[in-house]
Amino acid sequence: MMTSHDATAGILQRPYLLATVGACALVFLAAFESMAVTTIMPLVSRELNGAGLYALAFAGPLATGVIGMVAAGNWADRRGPSAPLYASVALFAAGLLIAGTAGSMPMLVAGRLVQGLGSGAMTVALYVVIARVYPARLHAQVFAAFSAAWVIPSMIGPFAAGVVAQLSSWHWVFLGVVGLVVPALAMILPAMRGMRSAPDVREAGSTKTAPRQAKPDAADVPWAFGRMGWAALAALSVLGLNLSGQVPGVGWVIAAVALVIAMLAVKPLVPRGTLGAHRGLPSVILMRGIASAAFFGAEVYVPYLLTERYSFTPAFAGLALTGSALAWAGASAVQGRLGSRLGNAVAVRIGSALVLGSVAVLLVTTVFAWPAAVAIAGWLFAGAGMGLMYPRLSVMTLALSRPEDQGFNSSAMSIADSLGGALSLAVTGLVFSALTTTVASFAGVFALTSGIAVVGLIIAPRVAGRRPPGGPGGQGAEAHRAEEADDVRA
Predict the structure, then answer these.
(1) CATH for 1-199 (3.40.50.1110, 3.40.47.10, 1.20.1250.20, 3.40.50.10540)
(2) How far apart are CA 155 and CA 35, in angstroms?
(3) What is the mean pLDDT of each run of 10 residues along the chain (490 residues)?
(4) Dihedral angle at the C-alpha atoms of 111, 113, 115, 120, nearest 10 degrees?
(5) Which fold has domain 271-490?
(6) What are the counts of helices (DSSP H) followed by strands (DSSP E) for the chain?
(7) Burial (Cβ within 10 Å: 0-12, 13-18, ≥19) of residue 304
(8) How far is CA 300 from CA 36, 212, 294, 306, in A?
(9) For 386-421, how does the pLDDT look when each residue is reduced to its tens digit (9 = 90+)?
């Protein structure tokens, strides 16, 4: 039952305090792992003799995360978010335990696959929890808190992980998080028990109790087996693409087939015309995937380059990622303050140009053996480019969607984000392993991601399109822009 105190309470006041802290803690832990693993993976790969599976350790979780997103969303629509959240947290913790106790690279990759499945599902389940637990007037505040929960690990995660790996063992970067997952979930449980009161229908500032909503029949929301099947096929294709390099002779044939299957599998998961870069929403979704492919396909090799060629310690190699994350946050804040003075399409074009320039700097630094400081400084601009692009692509996805398509299109954007990075990492892994020298391997990776960034720069002007009838516009679009302006990593 809602009281007048509830009607004016903020996200850090009762009855929302524990739920806010718990949900932000789960986001923080997932973000910390994402940033920390990038720093320690060169050390892990060296210790476990796993260079051939280096890219799969990053691409695999992104791929299985797509399955988690689709399954958790469908499960939450049928039964509510409680069961999907419990299951996703359990999978996330299980993946951490497997990876943290791994004595071989295949075992570590297996843990990462489980971890990615849980992390993808957890993100979707938490969003549904927000809709059910918090009134609409608090949604923007919660999402801003989630953004902050991403920013802080971006700042401290890489360096902290490097220090832990140096002073103790890389195993504790995984195992140290496990003990924090259960308390974080426990803080959300009291709020979840009250979800049946339908807080999502409460009016902001209302002092009346919201009417109790009848529980929908589960049969009204069928299991989306077809959609989950396509997501699973896309994920399996990414895994096959990664492992094709282990098959002598016909590896590149397997890679080509896997890439084609992945493209066919993703087609039903995104709006029509996305793979053809049709103007408007399809290009917005495609641009999200290409930006992810160019940025993350190169980023995971930045600390690797610094440790292998410049003999950086893991802690100091991680500082390059910290600088990029700070640039991402700063650029995101700047574009938010500029608002409509900086057009969405212009922000995307500038952002894509910055990412291309930064990856090109990495390529030139590698080929001509320039100082490490050049690569580190150059990578700051990649973070700034992503900070300009990502929030605006989120805004445009909502603004160019009809109300009945907002859920599908938002899901498509997340899927494109994950699969874009996963496919890029799979192909860069093949290139890195196929070339015979260290310099050639890094140069090949950065040449490929530069090519992807060029495609992004070509597609960027096509994101502008007319808003569909009935879609959010005017003040609604501005509200979405304000909400997304602080979105730093989601």
Answers:
(1) 1.20.1250.20
(2) 9
(3) 56 82 88 84 89 85 88 82 90 94 94 93 83 76 74 78 86 88 85 54 40 48 83 89 80 88 91 93 95 94 92 85 86 82 92 97 96 94 92 82 71 85 90 90 96 97 68 38 37
(4) 180
(5) Growth Hormone; Chain: A; (1.20.1250)
(6) 17, 0
(7) buried
(8) 11, 49, 11, 11
(9) 989 988 888 788 788 776 676 678 778 888 988 899
pTM flag (> 0.70): yes
DSSP codes joined into one string, 65-131: HHHHHHHHHHHHHHH-SHHHHHHHHHHHHHHHHHHHT-SSHHHHHHHHHHHHHHHHHHHHHHHHHHH
Domain ranges of the chain: 1-199, 223-269, 271-490
Contacts of 208 (CB under 8 A, 6+ apart): 2
1-199 and 271-490 have identical folds? yes
3-state secondary structure 260-319: HHHHHHHHHHCCCCCCCCCCCHHHHHHHHHHHHHHHHHHHCCHHHHHHHHCCCCHHHHHH
Classify residue 206 by its DSSP letter. -
Q: What is the average pLDDT value for the chain, to the nearest integer? A: 82
| Pairwise CA distance, residues 385 & 223, whole Å | 39
Q: How far is CA 178 from CA 30, 114, 337, in A?
A: 11, 14, 38
